Amino acid sequence: MASIAAERIDRLHTLARAAARTGDDDRAREYVRLARRLAERNRLTLPPAFRRFTCDDCDAVLVPGRNARVRTRSGHVVVTCDCGTHARYPYTG
Amino acid sequence: MTTITPESLPRHELLGLHARVAADTDQSRVGIAGRVVDETMQTVVLRTASGVAQVPKKGATFEFRLTDEAAAPDNGVGTAFKPAGGETRQTTGESVAYVTVDGGRLLSRPERRSENGVDSKWR
Prior knowledge:
The complex is a heterodimer of chains A (93) and B (123).
Chain A lengths: L3 H18 L3 H18 L5 H5 L15 E6 L2 E6 L4 E5 L3
Antiparallel strand pairs in A: 1-2, 2-3
Helix pairs in contact in A: 1-2
Chain B lengths: L17 E7 L8 E7 L3 E6 L2 E6 L3 E7 L30 E6 L21
Antiparallel strand pairs in B: 1-2, 1-5, 2-3, 3-4, 5-6
Subcellular location (chain A): Cytoplasm
Function (chain A): Part of ribonuclease P, a protein complex that generates mature tRNA molecules by cleaving their 5'-ends.
Cofactor (chain A): Zn(2+)
């Protein structure tokens, strides 16, 4: 049984992606901020998909090709948000 | 998977739900209905057919509509793939419930509402 906070984060994630899809970027940001705040207060880990596809700096929901660039470098993926923030994720193989 | 019950609603996520102002101390606000798009400590923001309305929680009574997939967007990408004349989620009558909540019970910051009425473990 997931806690209410975990369920709220899950819903907010869905809502944020839906808002980003319809071009409502600022609304999506607010949903991301609220989800982060909930995780913080309730000591929960955000889902991996949430952590990867939101900007650490400006809280935007990252949509590759629209507001994010995804490039592979040797040993890591670089995701660049439109605000200029890079996030690097290692990979092997 | 995600479940909002009438009991947990005041502590659960209101964003994305459909709400209607059932009663209000200000008569002009009664009947405002739409999707909850934002929430502040003292207000709820509804997207109505005629625009966006910010309704104070204090003094208002809200009627929320709970469906099986309330978090799914009304105009999601899946819409285009539904067969013509097929079932929509609105037609499955038994999965819809209406919950009436006094706005005073929602007076709290959105992120703090989930903790109302819960004993802290850290005492």
